[in-house]
Amino acid sequence: MKRIVAAISLLLCSVATVSAGPPLITDDAGTVDVGKVEIELNSSYIHDRENVNGMSVRRNVFDGETKLTTGLYKNLGVSLTVPLHLQ
Fold this sequence. Notes:
Layout: H1 2-13, E1 37-52, E2 55-73, E3 76-86
Antiparallel strand pairs: 1-2, 2-3
């Protein structure tokens, strides 16, 4: 019992801040049907220009991901996400 309490305490202490990604900005909260496959392609591009100590600094950032999801059981699915970050 002490090990379980210690493991849960350690887990709660290691919680990090996260931000909502593409699945959380849509109305689709369901799982993929068994035997079906869902492919998601998401991307974002940032172009920024600012002056630092009298010099113009430009920044271009491209983020993307490919996500493959399939249903294992009625209410259980598994997904594989491949991220891409170019700066």
